[in-house]
Write a structure and sequence with these properties.
The chain is α+β, with helices and mostly antiparallel strands. Helices cover about 40% and strands about 25% of the residues. It starts with a helix and ends in a 7-residue tail after the last strand.
Length: about 150
């Protein structure tokens, strides 16, 4: 009987601890290219940090829209890659219900436009396709395109 009670406590403890942004993206299974890019840019420790962060995360399909040669070149250019990736990150934990239309300042330093179009939330020209993927140091919203800083 004590073994069953111990299992229940361990199970409850594991549920209470969410993963950070990086581990959440890894376990989702649809952000493999993003995780590879974050590693190449040296941003893993930052996104595992206390945050909170809101990441508008391009899916693997979003990265697949970029021509392979261009993506390979970007992955090798740490400065350019860091600029693109931090353009997808907003300080704070912004849940979908709290997103407001307008310009949103990114960690990269410039802003992108959030708008509602045909019942969809758009971030620049990317459509938000999944919202509120919770992490213990922020939240991920999946987008269908990689957005580029101006």
């Amino acid at each position: 009987m004590a073994g069953i009670a111990g299992m229940a406590v361990a199970f409850t403890f594991n549920l209470a601890h969410a993963a950070d942004i990086v581990d959440t993206a890894k376990s989702a299974g649809s952000f493999n290219t993003l995780v590879t890019a974050v590693q190449a840019a040296g941003l893993v420790d930052t996104l595992k940090g206390p945050g909170p962060f809101t990441v508008f995360a391009p899916t693997d399909e979003a990265f697949a829209k970029i021509p392979k040669a261009k993506l390979d070149a970007l992955l090798k250019d740490k400065a350019a890659l860091t600029k693109v990736l931090t353009y997808h990150v907003v300080p704070g934990k912004v849940m979908a219900a709290d997103v407001k239309p307008g310009d949103v300042k990114t960690v990269e330093g410039s802003s992108f436009k959030v708008a509602a179009k045909d019942g969809n939330v758009m971030v620049d020209k990317a459509k938000v396709i999944k919202t509120d993927v919770a992490a213990d140091n922020g939240v991920i919203h999946a987008i269908d395109s990689v957005i580029m800083p101006k």
